[in-house]
Amino acid sequence: MKAVAVFPDKRELHVVDHPEPSLESPTQAKIRMLDVGICGTDKEIASFQYGTPPDGDDYLIIGHESLGEVLEAGPEAKKLKPGDLVVATVRRPCGHPECRACREGRQDFCYTGDFTERGIKQRHGYMTELVVEEEQYLNVVPRELRDVAVLVEPLTIAEKSLAQLWQIQQRLPWGCDTGVDKGPGHCHHALVLGAGPVGLLGAMALKLAGFEVTVYSRTHSHADKDDIVDAIGANFIPAEKYSVEQMAKETGPIDVVYEAVGASSLAFEVIQVLGPNAVFIFTGVPGRKAPIQVDTDLIMRDMVLKNQLVFGTVNAAPENFQDAIRDLGTFRQRWPSAVNAIITGRFSLDQAIDLVTSDKGGIKNVVAVAHA
Ligand code: BGC
Ligand code: ZN
Q: Residue 316 CA: which ligand 1 atom is closest?
């Protein structure tokens, strides 16, 4: 079967002929891949910055944002049946008995760093025709979400962030009692940095949680981004017209920052305008650039005197996938065209190499491996 693979040693990227997988345990299922989303991680792997083949292989099949259809379920894969749509998680546990996170199914918090990730680190990914996976790593998605369910994985980043945010803010009287359930973020202002798929999906999740939401980003050549921000009732502040300081004057006190650009210089500028009791959430992974100057005294003073908190978050747990599936359904009901507009284009598997090695623009490009 066809697969898109990177050969890190040779620094090459090819469509390869990979052996078809078959069920190796009764709890596995065979999946026909339908959609695979492309993100910055894939582009970085395709430019040989990281990405590790499984032990003994010289190539790694890329792709980690998936949607597939169950073809065959093993006799003990009881929650799955042929025809079910599924989104697979990405990370698999390390083998160390002392890693409590991995032993409890929370490999997204792996202590040892010896986790593996499909399409990224020592496990083949999803940009291929057929995949075999354990049922526990598969999340069933309702049929109605067929054309957008490939967005579930990038949305899990926001879901894991929010799950942590609710826990963290239990440290103070934070929620606003309105008598009506306007969501846990009601009466708070969230700032999203960046308007790529992670930023836009994050903005939707924050909006759904009741926040007033501002997206601060460079205006994109792709006008759809501002339209999406508008459609969900968030404010867009263009970074080329407003400095961080000017932006902060417009927004007033910022309670939560959801960083989704991976630009540390911008992030550390924004940290300086955080409001009291605010939480700054890092999700981007910056490439290494030249060191910059930051007023660390000011940042440290504010962090202490304003009870601020900064945390980073990566990958996601099964419950975050469940939340993402539920919320994507709600987004779809509330803002149907905005959700659809996040997916810019669908391309064939043969076009995938061009997609990951060039800048096609747009928001989320998807490799449509099969149509169903
Ligand atoms: C994926 C995560 C993964 C991370 C680091 C991201 O693009 O969405 O699942 O953990 O890359 O490899
Ligand atoms: Zn990704």
A: 9
